[in-house]
Amino acid sequence: MRGEAPSGPKMGNVTANNASQNCTIDHTIHQTLAPVVYVTVLVVGFPANCLSLYFGYLQVKARNELGVYLCNLTVADLFYICSLPFWLQYVLQHDNWSYSDLSCQVCGILLYENIYISVGFLCCISIDRYLAVAHPFRFHQFRTLKAAVGVSVAIWVKELLASIYFLLQKEVVEDANQHRVCFEHYPLAPWQRGINYYRFLVGFLFPLCLLLASYRGILRAVHRSHGTQKSRKDQIQRLVLSTVVIFLACFLPYHALLLVRSLWESNCDFAKGVFNAYHFSLLLTSFNCVADPVLYCFVSETTHRDLARLRGACLAFLTCSRTGAPREAYPLGVPEASVGKSEEPELLTKLHSTFQTTNSPAGEGSPTVRLA
To answer: For this UniProt entry, which segments traverse the membrane (predicted)?
Structure first.
């Protein structure tokens, strides 16, 4: 769970806001739902992001700047995934943090920062794609490895500086059952409201506006391309819109309820009323770690080819293990040169220019399909 750590699954849990105010809330929703979500993200997200990190590394070696953003996005997701065992143990122990206070703060920061680091790199990817599609011959200075590394460092530094604010707060408190709860404040503590407004406006709303503007520009460029078939235009639009839909599905409910709580949560009754919806929205943010590799790694032409080769090698290995006879690396009679060969149009290839173009002005792109 992010932003505020997962709440454990005990009936009548008392979460301390301060010494004078306790709020008794039923945490039953997490007894079944949270562990299922965390285990699913661990089992699916960890190998998917490891594979995504490998392909991102290959793109960086090929001097494709979007590989830098992809690697950073994947590293942020892996940090979050690696913190899940701690939160899983926390909810299974009925909201009892069995580690040190500092470890609670660090794990909470890892959870919280993943949202905004992910949002930042998704925004960078969308802007880079817009420049590649709508302005393929301009702004080449912003589409280099050096520029991508500089932007990535700025995003990490910004979020790490913001996380210092949480290190200054006391996040581990004891409830009425002598359980040490971590990142639990119901109703919201006064200091949380200001940081929540910052998270909503700067961390979510502003990047969302940039992302939507970038993808609107991509769609306009696609519509103005007369040399691309309608079916292929539809393919590009589905890719673009699926990115926006996943972004909104993972992050919008959480930030909407975060804003609602910050504006109107002043008593325990209100906290009880929004508790289940708020924590369900926190669980939705976890699925971003599964969606990111699908959107930004597994849809590229180059990765299609690499995956086809990897699949062929695995099939050959398994076949050899069963039969004891040597088999070709591409068992279905498909020559290596043709494995994963793309049927995408030049425009779609340019849309994934991180995997297809170089970063020099001369190599910025000479697309077959010109976008007026």
So the answer is: 36-57, 69-88, 108-127, 147-168, 197-218, 239-257, 277-299
Amino acid at 187: P
pTM for this entry: 0.76
Bridge partners of residue 319, in order along the sequence: none
Tokens representing 323?
């039969």
User: CA 16 to CA 172: how far, in whole Å?
Assistant: 10
Torsions phi, psi of 13, nearest 5? -65, 135
Same domain, 328 and 185: no
108 with 205, same domain: the answer is yes
What is the Cα–Cα distance from 133 to 351, expressed in whole angstroms? 6
Give the C-alpha separation, 184 to 189, whole Å.
10
Give ∠ CA 84-42-7 in degrees, rounded to 5.
Answer: 35
DSSP string, 46-112: HHHHHHHHHHHHHHHHTT-HHHHHHHHHHHHHHHHHHHHHHHHHHHHTTS---S-HHHHHHHHHHHH
CATH of the domain at 63: 1.20.1070.10
DSSP 372: -
pLDDT in tens, 188-241: 888 889 889 999 999 999 999 999 998 899 888 888 877 666 766 676 677 778
Q: Which residue has the tokens 């769970």?
A: 1
Asked, for residue 366, whether it belongs to a domain, the answer is no
Domain that holds residue 318: 307-355
CB 65 within 8 A of CB 148: yes
Same domain, 227 and 340: no
Q: Please, are residues 295 and 243 in contact by the beta-carbon 8 Å criterion?
A: yes
> Is there a single domain that holds both residue 262 and residue 228?
yes
* Cβ(255)–Cβ(204) below 8 Å: yes
Overall number of domains in the chain: 2
